[in-house]
Structure prediction request, 465 residues.
Amino acid sequence: MRLKNASVILWVVITAVAPTIAAEPATPALLVENIVPVDPVLGALSRQDVRIEHGRITAMGELPSDPDANTIDGSNRWLIPGLWDMHVHVTYDEALLDSMAKAFVDHGITRVRDTGGPVQALQQIATRWNAPTGDAPYLYYAGPLLDGNPVVYDGSVGPEVGVDVGTAAAARVAGLVAAGISFIKIYEMVSPEQFHALVQAARAHDLPIAAHIPLRMNVEVAATAVDSLEHLRNLELGCSNDRDQLLRERRKEMDQHEALAGMALRSRIHGQQRDQAIANEDASLCDTLIARLRDTIQVPTLRLNAMTQHPPFAEADWERALGFLPGHVARAWREAPRQMDPVTYRAHGAWSLAMIARLHRAGVPIGAGTDTPIGWAVPGHSLHRELELLVTAGLSPRVALAAATTVPASFFGMDATLGRLQPDYEADALILTANPLEDIRNTRRITHVIRQGRLLRKPLTDARP
Prediction:
């Protein structure tokens, strides 16, 4: 959101369109006739034709037929931009790697932002997924979680995807830039000194910054220094009327952690402070904090935060969603109801749902992300569930659609070229059989998926329960 200088926009645009340029000679023109474009900014437009060439929308309106173009009849159809998932971990579960790309594309996800994983593995996956002929979403990745001591994801619980940046923040970021990252992700155990060093290093390389609010830091200082915050995590600590005391307690706990692993220490602090902070919220203090966040995208991952209120396995399409997973994974995920804690996250889930409307009223941008595959998130399917929950929490269908199109594009400074249905915009698009502005669940009713002007496939339509 803060990256407005021309060099940043030029760098990101060149990075995004390079596969399109390489694909131009082999990509025929695509003409979608008599369709209703649904733009996340302007809403539903008049029924018209849309022409796509060289990976971009080249014309819209009443257009002449073209016998050389690949023509699609859009009668009784709606066209929306391709969807993003702003928060995924592609490498988190190796059992899903072979099926993940197809599952994303079948659900209309044309771009994903990977918010933490081994950089070498992600580099190799991006080479495949981002190829001009790749049948996968375009992948943007941060590499490892840039953490402090003790590291949360140190491999003792879950995959080893975090690193202690120590005193080498600038060198760490420079190395990741050489490995092709698109942004960095700052995690919860960094010190204030490490945090500011990482921010400085990222800005020096014109990189956007995603983050969790570090537990050692003043919430307002950290939250307003980055470009996106994930899960609304630790934001409640800045809304509490005893926030200063809570900060002192956290710092003391972390300074005396001894040999406690990072995951256990973080979980203990959350368990001690999260519900207390929510119960002691100062509404006026919280409104003041929210007002400071107008330049910081919030990616709430409601499907994860509010799982107690809206468990995925209670949905009518849960069994169908499991069909996108390898058989042994689907069998294991059917045990989800027995594994979920119905109490621990209840207050935070309710608070997260209530926070969406407050953020939107204050003009804070909201992005759609799922934390796939964590918390039984089926790739692609979970993004549509996230959109539904954003609407349930108070967003209009159009604003929810923007959360998965224009908002993620803005994180990378690409909102002037990506995420909308306008001439000269990149041609990521989905054809639907129903209007998503009437019912956000209609984003599931996909007949065609287009990525950078190329028709990827025709998935089964009407995935809605």
Q: What stands out?
A: Residues 169 and 198 are 5 Å apart (CA to CA). The longest strand covers residues 30-39. Residues 82-419 form a domain with the TIM Barrel fold (CATH 3.20.20.140).
